[in-house]
Every structure is written in C-alpha cells, then in structure tokens.
C-alpha cells in the first residue's frame, strides 16, 4: 500500500456514548501527523466529512457510513482507510496501526 485514503466521519458535537473522548475534528487533526510520522513511505490523503453538514456530492459508500452512524449502528468519529472500516467511537492508536500493518 503506497497510498492511503483516510476518511474521518464526524460531527461538531461529541458522540453521546463517547464521553471524555476527543471531538471528531480533534481526532482528524491528531491522525494526520501521527500516521504520516509512523508510515513515512505511504502517501496519505485525509478527508473530514461532517455527517450533519457535508451531505452533498458524497459517494454511495460515504452515504452508507453516514446512514449507519445516524441509525446508531456505528459511532462517530468513524475512521476508514481505503474505504474499509477501521474504527469508530473512541479511536485508539493500536487499532489504526494494526490495520495499517496488515496492509503495509
């Protein structure tokens, strides 16, 4: 994997079941330098999608994740890498690195 598209789906309000967790935007801001530093050989593209505001021009794939969050199947922030679900709710580094190492 030489390229990785990282998408964080989130909202301004902290998820109700994610008390004391960072906001979606903070998670997005934290992920970028962290992944770039840990995997310098990979070219990352980062996208933040606000599930309440960014509702136009989304792919069906993005729309499906947003619907699953709105139906409480998944929590936000939700992280996908190359369109694959990685983690949701309280995002932890070991979950992300385990995913990256599998495909690295």
UniProtKB/TrEMBL annotation:
Taxonomy, superkingdom: Bacteria
InterPro entries per record: DUF1462 (IPR009190), Thioredoxin-like_sf (IPR036249), YuzD-like_sp (IPR038218)
Pfam families xrefs: DUF1462 (PF07315)
Bilayer-crossing regions: none
Protein name, as recorded: DUF1462 family protein
Organism listed in the record: Staphylococcus gallinarum
């Amino acid at each position: 994997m030489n390229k990785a598209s990282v998408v964080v789906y989130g909202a301004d309000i902290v998820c109700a079941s994610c008390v004391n967790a960072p906001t979606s935007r903070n998670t997005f801001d934290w992920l970028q330098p962290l992944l770039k530093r840990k995997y310098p050989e990979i070219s990352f593209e980062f996208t933040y999608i606000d599930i309440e505001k960014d509702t136009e021009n989304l792919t069906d794939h993005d729309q499906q994740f947003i619907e699953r969050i709105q139906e409480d199947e998944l929590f936000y922030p939700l992280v996908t890498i190359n369109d694959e679900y990685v983690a949701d709710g309280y995002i932890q580094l070991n979950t992300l690195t385990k995913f990256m190492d599998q495909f690295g």
